[in-house]
Amino acid sequence: MAIRSACFLSLLLSVASILSSQEAGSFPPSVPYRVQLAARGPIREIGLREALAMALAHNLEIEIDSYGRELSREATISAKSYFDTVATLNTSVISSDIPATNILQTGALDSLINKAVSVMPGIQQNIPGGGAVTVFTNIARNTTNSQFSFINPVFGSTLGFSVTQPLWRGFRRTAVERQIVVSRLNEKLSESQFRQKVAYVIEQVVGLYWRLAVTIDYYESRRQARDVAVLEYEQLRKRVQQGQDTPLALSSQLSDLASHEQTLTLAATQIVQASNNLKRQLTASVIDPLWTVGLLTSDRPDAEEPSVGLDDAVRRALESRPELDQLRIQLRQSDADLRFYKQETKPSVNLRLDVLSTGSAGTAYQLNPDSTVSTTPDPSNPAYGGIGKSYGGALTFDHPSVDAGLEIRLPLRNRAATSQLTTAAVNARKLQAQMNAAQEDILVEVRNAWETIAAQRKNVEAALVSRRLSADRLATEKAKNVDDTASLDVLRDQRDLADAQVRELQALVDYQLAKVAYEKAMNSLVDDEQIVLARRK
């Protein structure tokens, strides 16, 4: 009994302390969130369509993914560079001084001195099918001190071309051409991944937008609940002062009020987090002006039913989902690998053809009666002339040379190519299995999204009925208290109506997100106009 009396006395003292410190009107009135936001700085109301446009124009994830498309395009250009024409130029200057070991080398001189200057331009071109063509020419000037050379200096010219062409292995199935095919398909793969990323960002923005709308409305409903709790506390405090109620009830009411204050603080924090998350999707840098303004939503979710039925949605999803599109592209790449590695298991048979035309001219000298070379030029000699005559002889193909042949290589055990072919075949089967699994996953996703819409539709209808009943109760209570619109009963009904409105908004948002998931499942969330807007670079 002594312990109970002590506890009761302590409770009386604490309640007395509360009563003395909490005078009427000591709890500050709550302020709507919009008013609080305006006091901190500028406000920007944004609609869902505007938010989506900003995300498509500024979202960093979309920008990062767009670079993959550019890199794939450059990889294709790099692969095609194998067929770029290459111009070559070789020059040489040679001077040799060889001791004479035979009188027929130089006559009476002690050493044989030869000097040569040559220029050899050419063009090399790799051609589709694995072949290569080289066209070249050579212009040279040779001088010697040999007394037996009756043309000195000598201008030599050659004109020719060389062709190599695989006839079996490597014919139209070269590693370069395979790489070009794979690179082109990688471009399409990057485009599909880019569209998938855009759809993902749109889904995220829609969810974050409605999340912000719900948190703001939830804050307002908690604010009204807090105001009702304050009014209930004030009325109970007066009854305790008049001896009409117990101090224990007042302590319980004060605890309830503290809980409302805590909930309100948490709701304000959720608004800030939702706003920051949405801004992250709409901005391109930390210095974007949007970070300095308070963000509010201006749209409300609708309750329209989907325009596409389940069967059409399944058909669209299986035809156009980016995941399936990417697997189809990978299957085409695998097919290119199979064709290439199958060709690599064949013997190598290469055709080689070299055609060369030679022209020669120079300063010809007359022969003495003893068949030695004189110092008198002989313009009548057919070889007499300069570099022009030499090159003209090469152009007329008066002295052609032809060299043709086959090179055959037959590996006795081509285990490397066989292993690569087997690996490519296994990868193709693996991709086909992944395709089948992805189709089933997408079928399940579309069906589940359809059922979720139906369930959320029922939640919307129930929330609508609840909100209407709360509105009717409030109207009835206001009619009973015409002269006292701030009565506790009216405020309680206003609180209940605000709660019902939040539940209705949450149901509508859930229904809207279910429709977004349904549209994403059948790949109709993104249109071509949005893709063009997203391609900002």
Helices and strands in order:
Blueprint: H1 2-21, H2 33-40, E1 43-46, H3 48-58, H4 60-80, E2 86-99, H5 103-106, E3 111-126, E4 132-144, E5 151-166, H6 175-241, H7 247-282, E6 294-297, H8 310-320, H9 322-344, E7 348-367, E8 373-377, H10 387-395, E9 400-409, H11 415-480, H12 488-521, H13 528-534
Parallel strand pairs: 1-6
Antiparallel strand pairs: 2-3, 3-4, 4-5, 5-7, 7-8, 7-9
Helix pairs in contact: 1-7, 3-6, 3-13, 4-6, 6-7, 6-9, 6-12, 8-11, 9-11, 11-12
Describe this entry's structure for a reader:
Strands 2, 3, 4, 5, 7, 8 and 9 form a seven-stranded antiparallel beta sheet that branches. A two-stranded parallel ribbon has the order 1-6. Mean pLDDT is 84; it is low at 1-25. The chain has two domains: 33-74 and 178-336 and 424-534, Outer membrane efflux proteins (OEP) (Up-down Bundle); 93-171 and 351-413, no CATH class. The protein has helices at 2-21, 33-40, 48-58, 60-80, 103-106, 175-241, 247-282, 310-320, 322-344, 387-395, 415-480, 488-521, 528-534; strands at residues 43-46, 86-99, 111-126, 132-144, 151-166, 294-297, 348-367, 373-377, 400-409. The chain is elongated, with a radius of gyration of 45 Å. A hairpin with a 6-residue loop joins strand 4 (132-144) and strand 5 (151-166). It has 13 helices and nine strands. Helix 6 (175-241) packs antiparallel against helix 7 and helix 9 (322-344) packs antiparallel against helix 11 (415-480). The protein has 537 residues and is of the alpha+beta class. The relative contact order is 0.13.
